[in-house]
Amino acid sequence: MTTQNPNGLLITTIENKIATLEFGHPASNSFPSDLLNRLTNELNKLSNNNLASVIVLKSSGSGAFCAGASFDELLAVSNLDEATKFFSGFANVLNAMRNCSKIIIGRIHGKAVGGGVGIAAACDYALATNESAIKLSELAIGIGPFVIEPAVTRKIGKSATTEMTLDTEWKTAAWANQKGLYAKVFKTSAELDIEIAAFANKLAGFNPEALTEIKKTLWEGTENWNTLLYERAEISGKLVLSDFSKKALSQFKK
């Protein structure tokens, strides 16, 4: 299935029990709310699709994996309801990934920023290249990585998340691998794709019921995300309306 519009593309293909879910946007694969909503819906559909046993989540192109939230949309929000709804879009995606009955393999081929780091962290198994540096730059634009923090901390721990959050500078793919965000890092995208194909086929050959049950155990202790992530979305919503954030976002847009 393919959905393509000015707010980005979303493509799903299923072959040999492997669902490949690709998202894309001209602005460095960033996420406007419409694309977040479509990704959430597609993840929910795949969770109930018996034709797929495993999901490979990837983004389009050879540049950034994901630049996070759409700055255009962040600048456009004018009230708390709009702002909270936008950040809740990321909460919806993370919860859809958490609740999905399928193991999700992340293909992180390039840089990830903000919400992109959160999506990589919510994958059950993420594979990357040497180009897959990561950054949490939210404090620099007057907000913070509130919605994605639980996903990132779950993967790399509170200390490493603190370092990323306060430093706001790039961390290398090797650093992300050392901290546990990436299971493996490869020199090239070609090598990455060979490993993903082999690993996805391996998982697709396992008992799908066993994969579903192990997924549940891997995510034990995150049940409070059903409320926590939306509380965090409201915090981000309040902050993005501040004069500090509006000015900072405008500077980033220049």
Description:
- The chain is α/β, with parallel strands linked by helices.
- Helices cover 51% and strands 17% of the residues.
- The chain has ten helices and nine strands.
- Helix 3 (80-99) packs antiparallel against helix 9 (225-240).
- It starts with a strand and ends with a helix.
- The mean pLDDT is 95.
Task: Give the secondary structure arrangement, pairings included.
Elements: E1 2-5, E2 8-15, E3 18-24, H1 33-47, E4 54-59, H2 71-76, H3 80-99, E5 103-108, E6 112-113, H4 115-122, E7 125-129, E8 134-135, H5 149-167, H6 173-179, E9 184-186, H7 189-204, H8 208-218, H9 225-240, H10 243-253
Parallel strand pairs: 3-4, 4-5, 5-7, 6-8, 7-9
Antiparallel strand pairs: 1-2, 2-3
Helix pairs in contact: 1-3, 3-4, 3-9, 4-5
The total of beta strands comes to 9
List the secondary-structure elements in sequence, H or E: EEEHEHHEEHEEHHEHHHH
Task: Tell me the overall shape.
Answer: globular
For the biggest sheet, the summary is:
7 strands, mixed
Figure out the total of helices: 10
Report the radius of gyration as a whole number of Å: 17 Å
The chain-level mean pLDDT equals: 95
- Terminal CA distance reads 36 Å
Please mark out the parts with pLDDT under 50 across 5 or more consecutive residues, or reply none: none
Strand content: 15-25%
Strands across the major sheet, in which order?
Answer: 1-2-3-4-5-7-9
- Tell me roughly what share of residues is in helical segments: 40-55%
Structural class: alpha/beta
